[in-house]
């Protein structure tokens, strides 16, 4: 008995070394209750200012959290700047000239450091900020699990390998999320973040000029600012009706074949996700609930054990 228990434990420990552990039980909503009780208020106020100044920033911060968590866990690895001797994730394919909001995280960190020096990780700041971003844009709120640490490493190759691209099929989206312990339902709910924010023409050109499952009026409208050649960086809203409102319009758009990216429309294209997309399109409350749960689950992704970590003092560089 004892030996088999020890064996299973050793096996689990070995698995944890090889795979990211999903960190159940390690995080707590009260993690900073004694050490930095004001952190949530600081994050909320900086986020409120940033979103008031530019609503898209809310979207950008939500995406920043996703791109942090999917690459070796929510460990603020995405925030590390490249140096002469270190190449991080910022310039990896899915992030370069695309992920934004780093200055907002810096502004939060400066205030949090002034209030509670060396206490709150950058990874926790991103988790809190993304919760606030969703809520400030009109979406749900939830209790954020806290206690993450910041990694002293980053992985451009994992960023390139783990983050799904806009040309993905439904099956590859499901498997990219499954690789992180997230279900097809989690994936479908989390994709609803594309109810806010903008995408560049180069990512949806193929869809608006070539795909059959697109609403013709929508395609024509998008073609106005996304020519067949040139204009790669021109932006379009994911949701052109309520571009900055965190609502369930992503799903009503998909049902109307008004998904912007190929990968978006894959969730409503005669496949297994169709039924849930239809439900979310008719039930904003169900979407809000599932989205919040899935964000907590994604926020539980941890770096592999053994990864060197710390509470960074400056989110852009290791201590
Ligand atoms: C399911 C697979 C996903 C794919 C293929 C995907 C792909 C993309 C692409 C190509 C863009 C536009 C980038 C650019 O133009 O530079 C984008 C933007 C965005 N993504 Fe995703 N994404 C996915 C899932 C998610 C998830 C899970 C979230 C958050 C929970 C998210 C949140 C966002 C947001 C909010 C934006 C707009 C950002 C802004 O305006 O700055 N995405 N995504």
TrEMBL record:
Keyword Glycoprotein: yes
Major place of residence: secreted
Disulfide bond annotation, renumbered to this chain: 36-116, 69-74, 122-315, 201-226
Positions contributing to Ca(2+) 1 binding: 68, 71, 73, 75, 77, 89
Annotated Gene Ontology cellular component terms: extracellular region
Cofactor dependency: heme b; Ca(2+)
Reported function: Removal of H(2)O(2), oxidation of toxic reductants, biosynthesis and degradation of lignin, suberization, auxin catabolism, response to environmental stresses such as wounding, pathogen attack and oxidative stress.
Protein name in the entry: Peroxidase
